[in-house]
Write a structure and sequence with these properties.
The complex is a heterodimer of chains A (about 70) and B (about 325). With about 70 residues, chain A is mainly alpha-helical. In chain A, about 70% of the residues lie in helices and about 0% in strands. The chains are: A mainly alpha (about 70), B alpha/beta (about 325). Chains A and B meet through helix 1, helix 2, helix 3 and helix 4 of A and strand 1 and helix 2 of B.
Chain lengths: ~70, ~325
Amino acid sequence: MKLAPENLERFRRLVLADPQLLEKLRKNSDLNTFITLTVRLGAERGCIFTADQVRAALQESRRAWLERWI
Amino acid sequence: MNDFAGWMPIRLHWAQSGLMVDWAFMGDLRFTEPFFAQTVGESLRNPANLLFRRDTPMDMLGELNTQSPGIPPAGFIFHGSRCGSTLIAQMLSALPENIVISEAGPIDIVLRSHLRDPAISEEQRILWLRWLLNAFGQRRFAGEKSFFVKFDSWHALFLPLIQRAFPSVPWIFVYREPVALLLSHSRRVGGHMIPGVLEPTLFGWDAQTATGMRLGEYGGRVLGRIYEAGLDQTAGGKGKLVNYEELPQIVWPDLMRYWDFDCAPQMPEAMSRVRRFHAKNPSQPFVADADAKSRAVPDGMRQFAGQWLDGIYRQLEARRVESRNTVKDG
């Protein structure tokens, strides 16, 4: 899996270390709401990244799963 | 290791350092879809589960194995593909006390890892398999007490290794009359029936031999190898043979008792409901199609069945009938 841009990757590590934060994000299954929340929660923790970068990271995660046999 | 509560290994992938584990949060999602990948796909529909995944070396599975023992496997299902094994798995997963992992990709990667890296020993694969099944057998819901694994059809070829890894787990091999089996594949071909999808060495052929076969011949011979493995490994009374024709009645209580599941004589309604629907597509009702299939069998198919499968099928049947009589006599 390729790394997302540095700040998003830093935020990803924060989320993985904080089950409550992950739960908060999991409650938003609507894609646009999730992306907006991710950008905001990241910014609140000093991790600045864009909605497009989140979309690209989601696409990369999906690709890694779909291409699991390759 | 509480950090990994609710997380499951969904994918193994190769990095320079070796095999890596891709973990996804499965939370309160039980494995109830016909196949492992479908339930994982369901979880990944949540964008947070898709984006926030963990990537660890295989050793993390070992740590989990040491620190958080899961429910040990109660039963294994092997099969010749299109033989009713998905129905069995679906009937099992209808009961909330069962964890059922059906054709999980990570298991396949571990079993075939030596074909990618010949330095990976059988001992290593046994260890990895134990670790993986420990992760899949983690209790996530109160009341879960039995854990079942349905393997991919070609994993019957790995039965000696799997039995070394789990010598006390009772297993079954499900098979079916060869023409009906080939007809099912002719409608929607299984991936393992296509040359090049799996390593030909798995079946004992070099690449040149495999590519020299006609498509139908290749598929017929692959199925023949899988049936042979089922026959070889049930020698000496090991395992239990199940013919498609015995489904679904044999599941409850015969198979459940074979798997040491404490059960009443009457099949629970939740399990009974499953058999009324198509196992791989539960939104569709089940329609028995054996008669319709027997009317439209191409000659080539009968020839492949006769050449590669019929003889082994007869031997499987003879052994199954003999084992049932032995039980009755006993």
